[in-house]
Amino acid sequence: MQIHILKKLKFLGLTEKEGLVYVKLLSIGEPITAYALSRLLNVSPPGAYMILERLEKKGFVFSDHSRPKRYIAAPPEVAIANYINLLETKLTSMKKIAQELSTIVGKESSKSSENDAFWLISGQKAVMEHVRGLINKAQREILAYVSPEGLIRMVKLHDSEYFAAMKRGVKINVLAPITGVPFEIIKRIKEWGELKAIDEIYARFLVIDCDEAVVMTHTRRGLKHYVGLWTRNPHFIMMLRIFFKVIEEKSKEIVI
């Protein structure tokens, strides 16, 4: 049972030693000094003190102002709430840092030729997270040329992002073969975009506002070798857009 609990605490962000100390404090149920705890756990007093201080910063432990200082475990529901607040504060700071970095990148990109470059993104998870960011940035138009499996991923992974894009006025056009695609997937996509059917798929890509594009592929070895080719190259993006429009002319309307 204790091993199971320690795994849960590790998932929350505690180290193994922090988890052991927190569980021990819960079982004790009353204030205890770092020295007394070190004797119970057979660790050095300085080591016990450092662990207790870290747990206090994370909100899992409370201390008093006595000398020597005494510690008591926060009730689990309180500890989790404290830790969530700490993570939310860190997340807010991280978002601010990301905005500052984006500003720097924006200034530097105008001075360089990086817009002509192509960048590889490895792994399906990384590619899909990058796609999520592009959808969230879209202001005018999204062109999606995808496989039947891609249609399913659009709904399962990015449905809320596409819906939000539609709400802010982004026009979303999707071309894909629909053979084998569940009806509810097709119906949902048509709620936030214009979906047309094609017979064959020659590539898979996403074009955002004619500013950025991602071409997606994976090898026969599976999704671990899923690769995205991301670019801001205006000539390549224009070529993809022209290709999309040519295929769109031959596509079929889907009536629900």
Layout: helices, strands, pairs:
Elements: H1 2-12, H2 16-28, E1 32-33, H3 34-41, H4 45-58, E2 61-63, E3 70-73, H5 76-109, E4 118-122, H6 124-137, E5 141-145, H7 148-167, E6 171-176, H8 183-192, E7 194-197, E8 205-208, E9 212-218, E10 226-231, H9 234-249, E11 252-253
Parallel strand pairs: 5-6, 6-7
Antiparallel strand pairs: 1-3, 2-3, 4-10, 5-8, 7-11, 8-9, 9-10
Oligomerization: single chain
Largest sheet: 8 strands, mixed
DSSP strand content: 15-25%
What order do the SSEs take from the amino end to the carboxyl end, as H and E? HHEHHEEHEHEHEHEEEEHE
Uncertain segments: none
Helix content: 40-55%
CATH third-tier fold name of the largest domain: Endonuclease, Chain A
- Count of separate DSSP helical elements: 9
Report how far apart the termini are. 53 Å
Widest beta sheet: strand line-up:
4-10-9-8-5-6-7-11
Q: Let me know the number of strands.
A: 11
Averaged pLDDT = 87
Indicate how many domains the architecture comprises. 2
CATH class of the largest domain, named Alpha Beta
